[in-house]
Amino acid sequence: MNPIVIAVIAIMAGAGIGYLIRQMQLAQAIRRNEAQAHQIITGAEEKAKVIELEAKTRAAEIRESADKEINRRRNELSNEDERLQRRRSELDKLADRVEKSEQRLNKRQSSIDRRANEIDELYTQELEKLQTISNMTVEEAQAALLAEVEKEARGDMARVMRQIEAEAREEGEKRARKLITLAIQRVASEHVSEITTSVVSLPSDDMKGRIIGRNGRNIRSFEAAAGVDVIVDDTPEAVTISCFDPVRREVARRTLQKLVDDGRIHPASIEKTLEKTNREVEKVIVEAGETASFEAGVPSLHREVTKVLGRLKFRTSYGQNQLDHAVETAKLAAVIASELGADVEIAKMGGLLHDLGKAMDHNLEGTHAQIGADFAARYGVPKVVVNAIASHHHEVEQESVEAVIVEAADAISGARPGARRESLEQYLKRVRSLEEIANAYQGVTQSYALQAGREVRIIVRPEDVDDLSATRMARDIAKQIEETMQYPGQIKVTVLRETRAVDFAK
User: Fold this and answer.
1) Which residue from 431, 308, 295, 289 is spatially nearest to 373, judged by alpha carbons?
2) What is the pLDDT of residue 452?
3) Do 438 and 456 form a contact (C-beta atoms < 8 A)?
4) How far apart are CA 20 and CA 25, in angstroms?
5) Percent over 90 (pLDDT), the chain
6) In the predicted model, is pLDDT for residue 228 greater than 80?
7) CA-to-CA separations, 389 to 72, 356, 399, 406, in angstroms, rounded
8) Model confidence pTM above 0.85
9) How does strand 492-497 pair with strand 455-460?
10) What is the DSSP string of 186-199?
11) Number of C-beta neighbours around residue 463 at 10 A
């Protein structure tokens, strides 16, 4: 047989056998899938039966719970209805009682109205009788009664005010005297005995001609270089230097004294000596400021502040050296602050620097308190100290107890015996101002300034000024004196109201 035929037959036989095998495998796979599908369906049916059973059980439970809740709500509604019925019954009974009470009240009101009408008629009759007897209308009687009550009330008010003020003044004076006495005893500074002067002594009157120089050359050069006025008058063996700047005046005085001692006075020597004296005075100023800071116990001040403080060495007020006054005020403020429990360091610094502006007020506009406060603020002085400087004359509001202590220490230092002196013209002007302020008030007949201007007594007309007005007048006058005048210490204001009854026997 042909091998090719045999090969073809073998291939066809293999293909048939393979086909049969695949058909058998496919049939087996179908049978397996059907068996699995049957199992899945059987499991799903069983699960569905279980879920259905559970759902029926849950539905039964929910139905049972709902029935119980419905029964409970029905019971509650039944109970609430019973309560409402009882409340309705109680309200009906209460309404009956209220109605009966209203009837009784209406009867009483009718009786009260009748009695009120009777009282009104009686009041009208009595009022007519009183008007007939007193010959006064109701308005006139009310006015008279109010006037009498007002008079009594004003008298009582004035008496109470005087009593309260007297008690407060007595207690305050006791404590103030104790503090001031303690402070002055502990400080115990010397009285003022040295005043900066602008008079230069000369060995002879011939020196005046040398100071003036040929055609006034020397004196003009000296005045132009020193910035002062040299007064050469008939005063024997002396010339006067005039200048608003105390430091410049001191430099000029020292320079002229050196020139007089040397004897060689000409423009070249004047400029050389003046320059040298300027350096000396600047050194003296710095040393004076540092010494004052050390004595007052206020270290670590800025150098510029110390330098300006030292300029107060050549400034006086009513004969009192201002640098000594500043140190004394710092010590007094420290003692008072220690006794009152305030900040001693702040009080000392405020007392030392409170008049700092007096070293600059001739060059700047404004009061010395404000000038000093602005300068101190620029160089890192604490704000509470700046406020104490600015407010020690009440130009701004005092913000701390240390500011009040600085003001009190300043007044003590200036008012103690021997601390200051004033000229006769200033004294007369102050006394005249006190009397003018007092005489400007209505009802004042006379006023007298007593005790070297430390007290003003005012006599008023009693028919124009009552007790309360007298108390108010004393307070107003004292306030006006504080605001418009400058004076050491304090001024006592006394208002005298005297009632005199005069009659004549005929």
Assistant:
1) 308
2) 67
3) yes
4) 9
5) 3
6) yes
7) 86, 8, 11, 8
8) no
9) parallel
10) HH-PPPP------E
11) 8
